[in-house]
Amino acid sequence: xxxxxxxxxxxxxxxxxxxxxxxxxxxxxxxxxxxxxxxxxxxxxxxxxxxxxxxxxxxxxxxxxxxxxxxxxxxxxxxxxxxxxxxxxxxxxxxxxxxxxxxxxxxxxxxxxxxxxxxxxxxxxxxxxxxxxxxxxxxxxxxxxxxxxxxxxxxxxxxxxxxxxxxxxxxxxxxxxxxxxxxxxxxxxxxxxxxxxxxxxxxxxxxxxxxxxxxxxxxxxxxxxxxxxxxxxxxxxxxxxxxxxxxxxxxxxxxxxxxxxxxxxxxxxxxxxxxxxxxxxxxxxxxxxxxxxxxxxxxxxxxxxxxxxxxxxxxxxxxxxxxxxxxxxxxxxxxxxxxxxxxxxxxxxxxxxxxxxxxxxxxxxxxxxxxxxxxxxxxxxxxxxxxxxxxxxxxxxxxxxxxxxxxxxxxxxxxxxxxxxxxxxxxxxxxxxxxxxxxxxxxxxxxxxxxxxxxxxxxxxxxxx
Length: 465
Ligand code: ZN
Hints:
By secondary structure, the protein is an alpha+beta fold.
């Protein structure tokens, strides 16, 4: 396998392919086939997201994939932001359509016309919905599995509120929800306020969650947007106030995608392959019986798998013939299974199993009677270790610089004083090819701009995907 530190991009492409996550041989560039193992991982990530938003009383909806040009054009700025990236449906059968229809690039235009029908009075607010659907972007840049693609697996939450203050409270809650999700996935990140010129079209402001992959490029893994009344004015989402007047609703959105899976692959994997955080691993525990002439290790292993499954774990047995235990160990390590249990002759004779967590790969003996209590502890250790490792790695890829020339030596993202002006950001972009992620919300201190010396705050700059 490729060396992850030295050839990150090659390592990433290779592991995505050999671990059975995705097949990119489908004849449309940027539209890949989800293989069972990858799909299961994504569904588990979706499950984590659903759990988090459902517990806060968001309602799941599902809107049509087609949006008319008229619907999109209601918000001029919105359509302008996406115009070059939209797929258009222009024919139905042999008939030229009177109205061109877009494959949703995101769902504001699809949803907000309906919101205007649903929202009538105070009692209808807050309206908090989400959907997990595919969205489409006609991507012309180089595509990369789970990172830059044309058919995107997308979580989008859309809310409407009776005041800007309540919408701001929603923004705070998104940060809480994101904390839960990122913690389950063991992902470190910075919260960056995107600059004016890079915020979502139509938003008042955009906060992005950015992480860094070992190659040093940043990866945007989530965004939340405060819309204020920018969209509700155009889509006529208003409610009747007690005094008989109408008020436009304030709105927010939250977007996540399979980039979460990309980050899991990129941040946690090593030269042996993937490492899945236990909370989202398609297989949490793989049990490998070691063939023996004296005892039936298969039966013993099967009963262990059964008891683990009954206790709610995603456990599997590998009973394939014609493969050695060593081959199986390597394969499941490559596929990132957090915990392996080995069952040989000794284990059967003395009533124990040999456990090997994917992170430490240290072997330990677990008495059979303690297995259902020991396994969650071992999985918790894997999660803790992944959290620690990725946090350390993230720290190592952050460069605090005082002089702009030091960007040249930086590997990873750069944190530097910035006044907030586009001209200064452009100097950094042009001279060093580092894009502007915006002001860091994690660093509140004031400092001087490394370009113009004016008062500023900590800005974040990086090469990114
Ligand atoms: Zn400046």
